[in-house]
Amino acid sequence: MLGVDDKCALWADYLPVEQIEHWYQECLLREPEIIKIVVENLKESDESLFSYTGSDDVLENRAGYYVALLLMRRVLKTQKLSVNDLFLIGRQKFFEVVKALLENQPA
Question: Which of 35, 51, 85, 103 has the greatest number of CB atoms lying within 10 Å of its CB?
Fold first, then answer.
């Protein structure tokens, strides 16, 4: 989507490569759990999934960005949109699409 891999898109060079790789693998392993938390808190303004604490727990370190990247890809694919089209669909429509995608996750 951005011409870089997921890890670079999500972290750039903020952490050492090994740490980013570990974080990404943890996100992959815990993806259903992370998505469940996002679904449960979709209307909340809790920013904890977007914070960095330095902990080894991905839930305390930017897991929200991981889910956001997944959702952007899924929205683009399911709605047959370009990246630029995302800015045109409107907040309400976007929220409805994201909610539907999150609620229809495989268990």
Answer: 35
Query: Whole-angstrom Cα distance, residue 74 to residue 68?
Result: 10
| Nearest-angstrom CA–CA distance, 55 and 93 | 35
From CA 15, how far away is CA 37, in angstroms rounded?
A: 25
**Rounded to 10 degrees, what is the CA torsion of 68, 72, 77, 83?**
-170
Please give the helix or strand (H or E) that residue 81 lies within, else none. none
Residue among 42, 28, 36, 35 nearest 94 (CA): 42
